[in-house]
Structure formats: C-alpha cells, structure tokens
Amino acid sequence: MSELDLLRAFRLDPPAHPWLKVGPGHDCAILSWEQGRDLAYKIDQIVEGTHFLLEGSEAAAPRRVGWKAVAKAASDIAATGFAPVAAVVAVNLRRNLSDAFALELHAGISACCRKYRIALAGGDLTASASAVSVCVSLLGQGAASSAWLRNGARPGDWLLVTGDLGGSRGGKHLDFEPRLAEAQALRTFDAQSPKSFVHACIDITDGLARDVGHLCQESDCGVELDADALPIAAAAHEAAQRDGRSVLDHVLGDGEDFELLLAVEPAAAARLQINWKHATKLTRIGTFLPASEGRVVKRSNGRTEPLPDVGYEHLTHEV
Amino acid sequence: MSELDLLRAFRLDPPAHPWLKVGPGHDCAILSWEQGRDLAYKIDQIVEGTHFLLEGSEAAAPRRVGWKAVAKAASDIAATGFAPVAAVVAVNLRRNLSDAFALELHAGISACCRKYRIALAGGDLTASASAVSVCVSLLGQGAASSAWLRNGARPGDWLLVTGDLGGSRGGKHLDFEPRLAEAQALRTFDAQSPKSFVHACIDITDGLARDVGHLCQESDCGVELDADALPIAAAAHEAAQRDGRSVLDHVLGDGEDFELLLAVEPAAAARLQINWKHATKLTRIGTFLPASEGRVVKRSNGRTEPLPDVGYEHLTHEV
Q: How many angstroms separate the CA of residue B220 from the nearest CA in chain A?
C-alpha cells in the first residue's frame, strides 16, 4: 500500500467546481463564496494507534482525544489566517467502550468548539469492531483571496515560528491550543497595509524539518535555519534526557507541535520583532533563500549542514 | 457503549455560532452565508464491516466503496433540496492493502464527484492496523431558508417516495445514484410558487419504516402507509426468496435505499402525480395524520396495523 500513490491520485486532476480556488496540496481548500469572502474547508482524522493511544503508559483520556481532533483541524484553519465557523464530526467507536468514554470524548470535542467559537453543527456515529477514530471537518472564513497558502514564500523572507518546539508527545500533542488568536493578531497587526506581509504559512504536524521542507517545495525556495535561534520546549529537553537523542533532533523532527511556521516579508518581520504584543512568542528561526542554495541548518560553530529529513512517522498525509 | 447517550450529548446544547440556522438532528446542518443563500454542511462515514465488506461472498470492489462514500453524503444533500458544491474526504487504509486498492478506492470517490459536479477539494490519508473507513464531508448550497428539513410535515400531506424500495444489500447500497437531479426537478416543478410544496424530506438509510418514523417524530405527525402502493424493487423479491421473510418486511426494513421520502402539500402532490416527467418514478405511498392517530400500515384487506419498528441495524447514527 503506497500512500504516496494515493496522494498523487488526489492531487492529479481532482474534480473541480467553478468556486474552488485552491484544491489539494495546502492546509485547507479555499472556495469563493459571497463577494468579498472566501471559505476555508478542511477534513482531518485522528486514529487510535496512530495519533493517540487508549491503552498503556501513554494512554490518553477520551476528553483529550476529542479536544485534539477538533484542535488539529482548527490548527489548519489558523494556518490559512482564517477564522473558524462550524464543525461536523464523525466518530467511530469500538463496541466494547463504556458510556462514560463516549460522553467524555464528546465533552472534549464540545470544549474545543466552545473555546474557539466553532458551531458543532452535526455528526455521524458508528460503532464497529475496529479502532476508535474521530474525523473532523471544519469551515472557516476570511476576506477574499487573503488565505495564507504554502506556496508564497520568497527568497529573503524571514522564517518565523510561534511558541516552542519539540517533545510534543510528552502531552502537548493532546492539549495544544490551535494558534487561531495568533493568526488573527498577525492579520490585524498591519491592518492598513493593502497586502498581507505573511507570504506563506503551514502548521507543524510532520515536524519542523519536514514542514519547512513543504514550504520550500511549494514555494520553490531554499532556506537557512538558525539552530541557535530555535525556541526549545521544556518537553524537548525531557525527551532528549529520556532517549539520549539530541535536543536539536527533537526540535527538528518530533512533529505535532501545531505551531505556525510563517514566511514573512522582511520589513514587516522586523516590525513584528519589536511590536509583537501577543502572549505567545514569535521567533525568527531562519531566512528563505533561492532554491539553488538548498535547505540548510546553521550550527553554533557557524558551519552549515543540510537540513536533515527527520520527522514524525505518524503515517498520515494531507492531500 | 450507548450510542444513544452520545447522540443525546451531541444534540443537547451543541456549541453554536450566529450563522448556524439548523444544527444536529437533520440530514444536514444549515448555515446562513451570503445574503440570499444558505450552506448545507454534512459529514458521513462508511466503515468496513458495518457499511461494506472487503472479504467473503459480499465483498465490495474498492471502486464501489469509494463511490458509496460520496454518494451517501450526497444523498443527504439531496434530502435538503440543495445542490452539492465541494467534498473533502478522509481515508483510513489498512497497511497491508495494495496500491491498486488505494487507487481504485480513489477512482470511485472521484467518479461520483465528477458525475455530480462536486469539487474534490482536499483530504486526509491515514494507514493503520484497523478497518478501512472513508469519511466524506460535503458542502451544498441553495436559496436562503429553503432547505427541506425533517420537521415540516403536516397532517394531510402526501407521503411520496422516489424509486423502488427493498433488497438494497443485493448491490444497490454500493452503486446507487443520489437523488440530486430528482430533488432539483422537485424544486423547479413549481418555480412560480413562492413557498415550497415539499414540507419535509429525509433520505432512506435506516429503512422506510424507521425513516417515516423520523419524519413523524420530528414533525409531530402520525402517518398511514398504504402497503399496496409501495414501489417494490426486484431485489426485494429476490431477498424474500432467499431468506423466506416477506417482501413487505424487506421494503419496510432493509434500509440503505437512498431514496427520498417526502411530505408534500396535497394540491401540489396531485399535480406532481400528473405532470412528473423525470425518469425516476415518484410514488404516493401514504398520508400524514395528526400525531394522535399514530403510525399505521393499511394492508390489502383494508385493515390497518401499527407500523413495525423494523430497520437495518447498521450501527450508525446521524446526530
């Protein structure tokens, strides 16, 4: 079974509609709707055994599973800079689970919707013999042709990231806050400016190295990442202590950070560094380069090395 | 594990949004969008072992599984009388499946989207150890406040149904055509009329008896079904021959017919009986009554008996 073949099939010549502005290959599809507004449209699933465990030492409480399912899709809406509106949710339960499990799962779904003012508009429930899965579709909205995509980064753009990176598996991957407020703060930071200074954005699911790679690939750019500038989560140090791998490995490859990775026009990025007031930090971690200069990490000693292809093997792909 | 408890949780006080006009409890959620238009929003999943089999004598080819996943969600859009616009699809594959399987599954998804002019806008792929599932979200659109819901039937309305009923498991449940064209023909039949003559609609998934029951429940009506008028699929006769149960049992209970069941204002329904030109037949199978008169079936001998609570136990529920 090759997911990549299926990915290619989804991306190659998908059935279109006159209202579809952006199809497979970005964090959300974008549809034109009423004059002046676009829709962001997303589906995302989390599956027991791949995205969460219900047994063993890393077992997640069902409430956290429900939260994660909605927050993960909301993180993709945040990556477009749009605001979420409504969710529909399909839950597949195992027949042997308790009432309390189902209700706690729902409570987590509902809590995330409430916190981010997302209408829980409908759903579908199945009970089967197989693994628990929660599939969430989200609708968001924003000004026409203003969605951040993956393909707009230009050489010279600064690479910024929200929050801290690495060690998400220690707990953050279940409890994270989608960066919706941060995205709105970025959109309104320069409200007078006629054009967005955010040229491209992605949320970190596969890991910093791979998701930077996605931005470079889609934008036809290279990048230099500054290892000393990376914002390191305490959980990344803990993970490194546990498994003996380097902290940098964890920051580059752990994935499911659900932070926003942004390509920002340099003058605006410099203003952001001075005037950014949001509680969540925003850190410059590198610079986009011409594609011919490749993708590299600059280490403390001043030497650069190729950006390693490390990432979280969660066996899931957006199309 | 009680799905009904979870259903109640979903329906009770779901997080709302000012744009949400109709939430859980109907075939689709309805959102107000631009002036004069509403959105229909839906999620639906099919799971191996519950909605299709991949092994044994009833094994479905993956192409038919992909078709069914989209068509089933499109059938819910048809039940609102809206037109579909775009789909996003989450596929969960088993790791041991072949490339050919994945590509054929995608071909079925794509074929249904193409036929019904639905943009295949994006997706999510997971490979896991568990059962294959395909989860489809659909967006549709129609005139503001014109969506058919389940709660508008009135005593005196005629109960109409498209197509033939029963025996769907013989194959139709995989290959059916969602009744989108029929819904549009109904909407344009009386285009001058300021108000819709379709008072309520549902697509038959649980089986005729249960889905009539849903219309009665939501509309606070009773109903008299005319057993002699029921349009019987050839497959219902075949199923009855195979298992020795009555043809009527199959027509009332088999489910997954994916036909539209409509409550229609009597004068318009009479005009429809004369002037309906669509290739798919439209049959009067009963009349709505005051709730106090209950839900009954009139048999050939003129006697009435209570509508039996028979239905397809597919262990899935819309919320």
A: 22
